[in-house]
Write a structure and sequence with these properties.
Shape: globular
Largest sheet: 4 strands, antiparallel
Radius of gyration: 20 Å
Strand content: over 45%
Number of strands: 28
Strand order of the largest sheet: 6-7-8-9
Order of helices and strands: EEEEEEEEHEEEEEEEEEEEEEEEEEEEE
Number of helices: 1
Distance between the termini: 31 Å
Number of domains: 3
Oligomer: single chain
Length: 312
């Protein structure tokens, strides 16, 4: 474990892509190259960065003390969906050079140290876990559900929305959210569907009243939805409710609901914001990647690996 002085916050030697909070309070940082770095909950210590598979990780989450990731390399045409126990030491696997040689020789290496690992032949678009079921969408393939041990539960075709069928990429899945015990699927063109967690059957579907190209979405059961569309965010209590729009300097990277302030805490392209009844913001030199409550305060991790405080 690499540490600094007592009370000092460690600077990461990587460019972070995503941050996950583990059940034991630690943070697992995924970097842009596919490295995994475990950081203490007080942000004072970090472990050595490991590469269980030598490709970037496009989507990931932590659930039940397991890291679920999707490793993909478009140049080598290889992808893996796998689960790694984070209660054990994460270790590096083969190098990229070894993977390239293996591909040429028709080898089939998997994610090192994984409890389970599947070779994939389609790109994963989004995924979500609820109550032991992982739901994910594959590009032009469909929706799938697996258990935490990687066993398939169900599969179904992707949804179609006639109202937005004529718009480019409108049916592309931009978010999957656990909602009311099931999964809510949201498309780039504003199509939405509630599907059964246990069977994949459609419970209800529709299209947002307000046309919007949705890049990503955040949800909180008390606050509702925050939809990101390039440098705009749309907040609405329910998918069919009244919407409010705020414009930012650039793309939003991450948002989380602050119950105490009754506001969304947002970070992104050289800007932080709090969005509630009013919008307050401040500029930053770097690009915010993650905002979260750590050390009993709100901090942002930026693309240089530096932690700094969010708006007070």
């Amino acid at each position: 474990m690499i540490g600094v002085g007592v009370g000092e916050i460690v600077k990461l030697a990587v460019s972070p892509h995503r941050v996950h909070r583990c059940g034991d309070g630690r943070l697992l940082v995924v970097d842009v190259d596919g490295g995994l770095t475990m950081v203490s909950g007080e942000l004072e210590e970090m472990e050595q960065t490991e590469f269980p598979f030598p490709t970037p990780i496009s989507h990931s989450m932590v659930c039940e003390q397991q890291f679920i990731g999707y490793w993909i390399d478009h140049e080598l045409l290889t992808a893996r969906l796998a689960g790694i126990a984070i209660s054990e030491n994460i270790e590096s696997g083969i190098s990229r050079a070894e993977l390239r040689t293996s591909k040429a020789g028709r080898g089939n290496h998997h994610v090192h140290g994984a409890r389970w690992s599947h070779a994939m032949d389609a790109e994963l678009m989004q995924m979500c876990e609820y109550d032991g079921v992982i739901c994910f969408a594959l590009w032009k393939r469909g929706l799938y559900a697996i258990s935490l041990d990687g066993t398939e539960i169900w599969r179904r075709d992707l949804m179609l929305w006639g109202e937005i069928a004529g718009f480019p990429r409108a049916g592309e899945i931009s978010a999957i959210v656990a909602l009311e015990g099931n999964f809510c699927i949201l498309s780039r063109g504003g199509g939405w569907a509630m599907i059964s967690r246990t069977s994949g059957d459609i419970i209800e579907k529709g299209v947002l009243e307000r046309p919007q190209l949705i890049d990503r979405a955040f949800y909180n059961q008390n606050a509702g939805w925050l939809l990101v569309s390039e440098n705009e965010v749309v907040t609405l209590p329910q998918l069919q409710g009244d919407a409010s729009t705020a414009v930012f300097r650039g793309p939003v990277s991450h948002a989380v609901w602050d119950e105490e302030k009754s506001a969304w805490r947002i970070t992104g392209w050289r800007q932080d914001a709090m969005l509630g009844e009013e919008m307050n913001f401040t500029v930053r030199d770097e690009i915010g990647v993650h905002v979260g409550n750590h050390r009993d305060d709100w901090y942002v991790l930026d693309n240089s690996g530096t932690w700094s405080k969010h708006l007070q």
